[in-house]
Structure formats: C-alpha cells, structure tokens
Design a protein that fits this description.
- The complex is a heterodimer.
- By secondary structure, chain A is an alpha/beta fold.
- Chain A has one domain: Transcription Regulator spoIIAA (2-Layer Sandwich).
- Chain A has 4 helices and 5 strands, in the order E-E-H-E-H-E-H-E-H.
- The relative contact order of chain A is 0.19.
- Chain B has a single domain, classed as Histidine kinase-like ATPase, C-terminal domain (Heat Shock Protein 90).
- In chain B, helix 1 packs antiparallel against helix 2 and helix 2 packs antiparallel against helix 3.
- Chain B has a 5-stranded antiparallel β-sheet, with helices on one face.
- Chain B is α+β, with helices and mostly antiparallel strands.
- The chains are: A alpha/beta, B alpha+beta.
C-alpha cells in the first residue's frame, strides 16, 4: 500500500498502489493536502493499481474533494476497476466525483 | 475428488488481535485466502469480503474498543461450500445496528465523510447481525452463490 505523487502541468496526480483503507487513509490525506498547501487546485487520484477501498478511504476522498472545491479547484478520479465502480455506485459517490475511464481522459477534463 | 485429497466439510479460523488498525489487513488477507481455496466468486474475494471485513474490524477496534491497547478483537470464521460466517467480537458496549445505519446515499448525507461502514457491510454481505455474547459481536454471513 503506497501513494506516489507526480505533476502533469498544473494537475497533481496521486497514484494509489494497493488498498485505500483505515490504516493508510491519513497518509493519502496528508499527501494531497501537501499539494494543496503548495497552491495546487487540480488533483487527480488514479486507481489503476489500486485494490479495494473501505468507508474510511471513501470518506477521505469526500473530505479532500470538499476542501479542494472550497478553493475553486476539483479532485477527480480515474481508472476505477469494475469492483471499485460498484463501490462508488452503491454509495452514490459516482454522482459526487467526476470519474474518467483513463488517466489521459481525466487530465483532459480539467 | 482427486485421489488423496481430503474432503472438507468445514474450515475454521480463530484469531485474536490487539486494538490496532494495522492488524486488519493481515486478518482480512487470511480469510480471503481461505475463501479463495473454496473457490468463492471472484467479486466476493476482491470486493465483498475484504471491504465488509475491514469495516467490521475497524468498527470493533475504533468504536468498540476505542483503540485501547489492553483490549482485543476476536475473529472467528467458518467456511463451508455454501457459506462463510465471520464473527467479530470486541469488548465494547455494543450498538443498535438498525439505529446506526443511516442511509449515506440520502441527499443530506452524501457529502458526509463518515457513516458508510455499516451500510457497506449490509450491501456487500448476505446478512449482518449484531448480538452480545460475553462481548459485542458482529456476524457477517456471505452465501457462496
């Protein structure tokens, strides 16, 4: 389980490797907030290499989206596999986030 | 049945962990591995089981035991070809399952950061029960289907 941060133009990209769960959600939150503190307003979380997400992980994404939207920016998601898509649909969080099928599609959407 | 293969009717796992969320992944992986050996559905192994188990364990550690290092969480799993039953016991006072399951998809709740754990357990398992048995127990039942 790890997170890596990269920059593409003015978009900060967070790659999630493995699970996003109660034991590591604070690490993701801090990584994103570090980028926000540097002035980043566009954040993409890429789940191409992610495992499952629990309610704590979903909660952190909601929390970060609220925070970033307050600054006029947005947090968007890409590469949800079928299982993660199910999770977002069950919780209706697919209506809260802009979700792209690919990283390029998400980057182009900003 | 392959010659020499032991026929299994039931398989069980019984572990106790301290109240630290860092132990959750290990227990979840053990139970998912067990279910995989019984050829449970791919989606059950990748989504339903790990997410529901993580929710039950984190509830037990964070809310039941309030991360008290002196308290532990017991996890008992029983698998058959038909179903998986997991009981997660903590040392807390328990809670009312129905009263604690607000709909997180309601318009007023969708932006909340919390409140999805019990909802997900109930959506992803065949049945979720809570009872007291010398401790607070959440029982998850998943039919193999």
């Amino acid at each position: 389980m790890s997170f890596s941060v990269s920059q593409h133009g003015d978009v900060a990209i967070i790659d999630v490797e493995g699970q996003l769960v109660v034991s590591n959600r604070q690490e993701l939150k801090q990584r994103v907030l570090d980028e926000v503190d540097k002035g980043t307003t566009k954040v993409l979380v890429d789940f191409a290499h992610a495992g499952y997400i629990d309610s704590s992980g979903l909660g952190v994404l909601v929390s970060l989206a609220k925070r970033i939207r307050e600054t006029g920016g947005d947090l968007r998601l890409a590469n949800l596999n079928e299982d993660l898509q199910t999770l977002f649909e069950l919780t209706k969080l697919d209506t809260l986030f802009q979700i792209s099928e690919t990283r390029d599609g998400a980057l182009a959407s900003f | 049945m392959i010659a020499g293969e032991m026929e299994r009717d039931t398989e069980t796992l019984d572990v106790r962990i301290s109240s630290d969320v860092r132990h959750i992944d290990m227990v979840v992986a053990d139970i998912v591995r067990l279910a995989a050996s019984w050829e449970y559905q791919r989606k059950h192994l990748a989504l339903n089981l790990p997410v529901a188990l993580t929710e039950a364990l984190s509830n037990a550690i964070l809310r039941g035991n309030r991360e008290d290092p002196a308290k532990s969480v017991r996890v008992r799993a029983e698998l058959t070809a038909e179903r998986l039953v997991v009981e997660v016991s903590d040392e807390g006072v328990g809670f009312d399952l129905a009263a604690c399951t607000a709909d997180p998809t309601a318009a007023g709740n969708i932006m909340r950061e919390d409140g999805r754990g019990l909802f997900l357990m109930q959506k992803l398992m065949t049945r979720v029960e809570r009872f007291t048995d010398g401790g607070n127990v959440v029982r998850l039942v998943l039919h193999r289907g």
